[in-house]
Amino acid sequence: MKQILIVERLFDGEDFHQNMAVTIEAGCIIAVQSAEAIDIDIDPNTISKLAGTLTPGFVDVQVNGGGGALFNAQPNVECIETIGRAHARFGTTGFLPTLITDDVEVMAKAADAVALAIKQNKAGVLGVHFEGPHLSIPKKGVHSQQYIRNISDAELAIFSRQDLGIKVVTLAPENVSTQVIKSLVKAGVRVCLGHSNADYDTVVAALNAGATGFTHLFNAMSALGSREPGMVGAALESQDAWCGLIVDGHHVHSAAARIAINAKPRGKMMLVTDAMPPVGMSEDASFELFGIKVVRQGDRLNATTGELAGCVLDMVGAVNNSVSMLGLSHGEALRMASLYPAQFLGFECGPGSTSNLGSSNSLGFIKPGYRADLVLLNQKNQVSRTYIGGKIVFAQ
User: Fold this and answer.
1) Which region holds residue 210: left if phi is over 0, alpha if psi is between -120 and 50, else beta?
2) Cα(69)–Cα(2) distance, integer angstroms
């Protein structure tokens, strides 16, 4: 059955338009036109008139938890669903459940859960992100040192599975050979570099081997210096690699974020949340991570050992922070939350194209041939409604 959304304002991924109609059928956008062009004889029961701005749904490639759930603690489908519901409140329509450094048995359970979630078509699940365990101990952050290790056949078998949707693996290139990186890429893995103390040459070699991203730029990686460019320098120099950026006012100084955005080609910087269980929960929510208590203080999470421990950031918050803190246009901030991560994951392939999840699964635009993953923002640019595949998954 067709449905038509008539909206006051629409951001199609490129431009803003007034008084538009979006026609949806079978979870896919089939027409976008002026509301004035709608057939007057159309069934009024198929029409919804919406106040606010309709935008492409947000895509988050790094989501550890939300709604009180932590993927490492509960690597099952129920946890993934809880996380998805929590983030849908803030406009996330596609996400990668993210498992930080852990035991190989937990990794296997997480992979099974993601495979089942995809098989059951759970809303918003695009794949999985393994953040570790092949990281650098000096740059481990809040990751548990006891689980940081060299890559083995057991992990390679998990990473090579073909039932996990989009696969992202964050690794430290000083601890994983370029030959292994090439093998991962051949197995369909998007390799991101992070939690690393690698020098510039090692990072460039990893990029040449097929790595295509950097996990939470600036955080837990070798810094840019005048004589030692480090991982940050290699990330900013690369014309092809994407960078995830946490815009919460704590992880990256606003000036550093602006410098990075200006340095990179347009489209290669994407917003991520690195979200933890308190997203969508009360202000006093705290949780444990490998036996260490993590405490929320306002919009900041710190382990009792002192490290920043992920975020309580959500995607619409990241968008609005990018406007207020970084001075970006609202359109560019929205693209950093939708189009650019969709391109990184390979979901922006053009109208009518196919992706890992089947036909009509292009994301990042509101155009014919794209999936109807949509977010309605109110006048304060907060989420009032979220659609995944044309179905309402959150309404305020």
Assistant:
1) left
2) 35
- Residues in the chain, total: 396
CA distances from 276 to 115, 298, 338 (A): 22, 14, 20
- Domain coordinates in residue numbering, the chain: 3-56+358-395, 58-345
Written out in words, the top-level CATH class of the domain with range 3-56+358-395 is mainly beta
Q: What is the dihedral of CA 177, 180, 181, 184, to 10 degrees?
A: -160
> Is 274 assigned a catalytic role?
yes
3-class secondary structure, 60: strand
Question: Is 116 a residue whose pLDDT tops 90?
Answer: yes
Give SS3 for 15: coil
Instruction: Specify the residue for token string 């790595």.
Output: 211
pLDDT at 50: 96
Q: Which has the higher per-residue pLDDT, 31 or 43?
A: 31
* CATH placement of domain 58-345: 3.20.20.140
pTM, entire model: 0.95
Catalytic-role residue among 60, 274, 314, 373: 274
- H/E element, 345: helix 339-345
The whole-angstrom distance between residue 393's C-alpha and the CA centroid of its chain comes to: 18
| Distance (Å, whole) CA 366 – CA 374 | 8
* 3-state class (DSSP) for residue 337: helix
Task: Return d(Cα 2, Cα 113) in angstroms, integer.
Answer: 33
Contact 346, 165 (CB under 8 A): no
Structure tokens at 192: 């991101």
Query: CB within 8 A of 148, min separation 6: which ones?
Result: 101, 132, 133, 134, 135, 137, 140
Residue with tokens 């975020």: 311
Tell me the three-class secondary structure of 229-297, residue by residue: CHHHHHHHHCCCCEEEECCCCCCCCHHHHHHHHHHCCCCCEEECCCECCCCCCCCCCCEEECCEEEEEE
With tokens 């939350």, the residue in question is 337
Residue 355 has pLDDT above 70, yes or no: no
84 near 388, Cβ under 8 Å? no
CA dist 356 and 164 (Å) reads 10
